[in-house]
Amino acid sequence: MTAPDFDKLAQDIKLWARELGFDQAGITDTDLHQEEPRLQAWLDAGYHGTMDYMARHGMMRARPHELLPGTLRVLSVRMNYLPFEAGFAATLRDPSLGYISRYALGRDYHKLLRARLKQLGERIEARCEALGWRPFVDSAPVLERPLAAKAGLGWVGKHSLLLNESAGSFFFLGELLLSLPLPIDQPVEKEQCGKCVACINICPTGAIIAPYVVDGRRCISYLTIESDEPIPVELRPLLGNRIYGCDDCQLICPWNRYADASPEPDFSPRANLHSPKLLDLWAWSEALFLKNTEGSPIRRIGYQRWRRNLAVALGNGPADEAVFTALHAALPSADPMVAEHISWAVASLTARQQGENRKTKLLIRCIEKGLPDHA
Ligand code: B12
Ligand code: SF4
Ligand code: SF4
Fold first, then answer.
1. Which of 25, 131, 232, 254 has the greatest CB tally within 10 Å of its CB?
2. What is the pTM of this model?
3. How much is the CA Rg of the chain, to the nearest whole Å?
């Protein structure tokens, strides 16, 4: 058997990736040694909070070849996820609605991306004998953003997400580790944030503590999804109506004016999650939560975290009689952590005059000016 033409194979792999629904693919080597001190500093500072898996794999995150011995290249892929009718402003503006991060409105992306990467791996394997390969998405102990940046998919923005000149940042990343000496792609020449610091300023909880550095413990995504602990009291009012993740640092980013919506049916919003009334969600029993979130990433947080998040959002919303009644009714049977959040919500509604958060107002104005297609 003759040795494969690796230039041609690299071109074919990128074509197959497009055929499988990825919006872009790039190839890089496994050398991330420059990232190791930054990753170590981030861990040493404790910015991972209770995400123990971040510390557990240590520097392996920066050494993909240790994950699969023999790995020579990383194929990095990205897939847009924004739904056509994202309804950002309408949902953020109305405090009686719950805002769910737009990546989580449809089916769980992990399954979709991993299945597509597996298909891609099988297709490459059919061309090359004795190939070692392994797909990764998100949960992988590798630094996906620095790898994608090296593979030419974009640059790391000051919010720490990967940004692409023509696609913004509303996309998922995934990788295939490959034992093939494919030609590598060049990184984007320079990051293009320039003097902009909009994401840092708009972040509701001040989680972007310096350009490119996110203190996970302050990020709403961590507080509402990853953490199973009580949400720190001082941060609760800042969450507004964000009940699962947060998109603010991406929404304010000028590069997302060019973000494309995804035609992928799996990412189409489920009607009951797109811009739901908080009180409707609050009425879900655990059985209904499990039924309504089947196949959705939201299911992974479980019912108690879901209730905790809803209680905070209700406490930040309108002080209607119906809200007080619903909160009081849930108190006797609530799990102790949720009960504490319900009591906080009742106290907060009682004490406070209603009014939209100042930063949210500003964000909505910016979305309406800059993102007409999605707003
Ligand atoms: C842990 C994690 C989180 C944590 C911590 C976030 C963080 N910034 O690390 C929390 C729960 C808060 C989180 C939130 C979100 N996440 Co997340 N998360 C991850 C995960 C699993 C690991 C990230 C990681 O390694 N962090 C450790 C830090 C040290 O790494 P880093 O932030 O990449 O930092 C590097 C660079 O910033 C760089 N750096 C540091 N200083 C400097 C200076 C300069 C000049 C430069 C150029 C670089 C640089 O050095 C660091 C080390 O290499 C990845 C998947 C993966 N395996 O990579 C998804 C991932 C990063 N998340 C993703 C998403 C979509 C989100 C959310 C948007 C979800 C949401 N809507 O709620 C938010 C965004 C918050 C934000 N602004 O980061 C996507 C990002 C896609 C993209 N376009 O970049 C990923 C890649 C998942 C995926 N497979 O698609 N996430
Ligand atoms: S996702 Fe929200 S809370 Fe997290 S860094 Fe971005 S703006 Fe801040
Ligand atoms: S908002 Fe500005 S600073 Fe932040 S990532 Fe976008 S361009 Fe960069």
1. 25
2. 0.94
3. 22
Query: What's the 143 CA to ligand 1 centre distance in angstroms?
Result: 8
Residue with tokens 């405090």: 95
Collapsed DSSP state (helix, strand, coil) of residue 361: helix
Q: Positive or negative CA dihedral for 20, 26, 29, 31?
A: negative
Distance CA 62, CA 190 (A): 21
Q: What are the b/e assignments for 94-129, b being 16+ CB within 10 Å?
A: bbbbbbbbbbbbbbbbeebbbebbebbbeebeeebe
Backbone angles phi, psi at 47, to 5 degrees: -70, -10
Q: Summarize pLDDT for 88-134 with one digit per residue, the tens.
A: 999 999 999 999 999 999 999 999 999 999 999 999 998 887 677 88
Nearest CA to ligand 2 atom 8: 203
Ligand 3 pocket test: pick from 163, 191, 203 the residue with the most ligand atoms within 8 Å of its Cβ. 163
Q: Picking from 120-129, 177-186, 290-299, which range would have the lowest pLDDT averaged per residue? A: 120-129
Please write the tens of the pLDDT for every residue from 161-180.
999 999 999 999 999 999 99
Longest distance between any two alpha carbons in the chain, whole Å: 77
**249 contacts: CB under 8 Å, gap ≥ 6:** 159, 161, 199, 202, 203, 208
**Which pLDDT band holds residue 372 (cuts at 50, 70, 90)?**
very low
CA of 25 to the centre of ligand 1 (A): 19
Active-site annotation, residues: 138
* Residue from 156, 190, 196, 213 whose mutation best tests the ligand 3 pocket (most atoms within 8 A of CB): 196
